[in-house]
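note to self: dont lose this again. the chain is below, predicted strucutre after it. 224 aa total, dont forget to put it in the shared folder this time
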Amino acid sequence: MFTSFPVERTQESPPPLPPQGEEQNNPTPDAHSTTSSTYVFSSSQLSTQLHTYNNPAFMILVDVQVCPEPERDKDYEEWTVDCSPERPLASGHIVTLQSGDQEIGTWRISRVSALTRHWVTFRTAGGPHLRAPIPWTHLSYFEGYTHTMLYTVLSNYPPPHHSYAHKPTFQQLEVNPYEFEIPKRELPSLRIRLERNPKMKTLLALLRSKNTAEAAGSGEQARP
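---
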């Protein structure tokens, strides 16, 4: 059994849109950012590296090419990112969705709403959901840590984006091809936060059951 999970919601007030025509400052690295870097590995070498920046996320405007048609639910529609955007997507970014030459609309990404093994689903403020491959996004420390810890019990659907599906590590179901650069000082608090999150109880129980079954089969002690 594999599943996706909702990410805990934090209180936030929508930041203002930047003035029209205002130029963006060049981003600079921030060693104390609360956003994790994402690495995607091929079988032998680093293939993609994303960075973190200290610019306020809501000052960043990004054009996003999506698939021609959205998936529709009774409560919302969800667009799938089809091409790598000019910068990784993150909460607070102002995104203009485009399909070919057609402009669909502009919204602010409000938060991550769900994660699967290979995709992140964002909610936008007053607009559709937006699903993007993990290598094309910036996750918070908590989201990156949660994805790493629960990877083997997350849904493998949708499968990896076609840009990555051919890579050997993406063809091995039990191998996690992602690494999130999270400072070691953050790990104890992230573990406590994960274990105390009521939305994660089912997945944590499923993970422990899976680890116990694997340990019994190999004669080893189950991982906590």
